[in-house]
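The record is kept unedited without comment:

——
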Amino acid sequence: LVMLSLIAFKLGSTIMLVPIPIILMSRLNASLYTVLWIYGVSRLVILTSLLYEGSDRVKALLYLLEPVLWGLIINSSNPLHAGFLLGLILYINGGVDVSLYSLYLKTTRGRNAFLYLLVGELAAAVGATASGYLYSMLGHWTVILVLTCVLLGSLAILT
């Protein structure tokens, strides 16, 4: 169950994170400079968010809100707003990844920890490869696909 959640989490994350600069440039009419500024704001949000350490259940519940945050980014007209939301998404993703890794170590008693990283990276590679195709076919509706991956990815943390 943890590995299925990891695969769904990594697929969903990379499917949305890979085309986000293109989405920002097309939806916000943002220049490359503005996109870099948005990423800078998102990193500041992550830096300040590191002061908060919530439980795994809180992280999973925040993770369930991620499709809503993606929808807000896609419909945003303010680069500062988009940067703040992207920072929240990246922070939530980091928390979920740590929670899944801790759960994996707990269930396997620390054996074969490399498998977690290997499976996660393979899923991320598949998601990155598929994201361009999915984005060209579905456009901004890839959020629905990500929603499915988010719900699957939260199963292990919520149980």
Summary: DSSP finds nine helices and no strands in the chain.
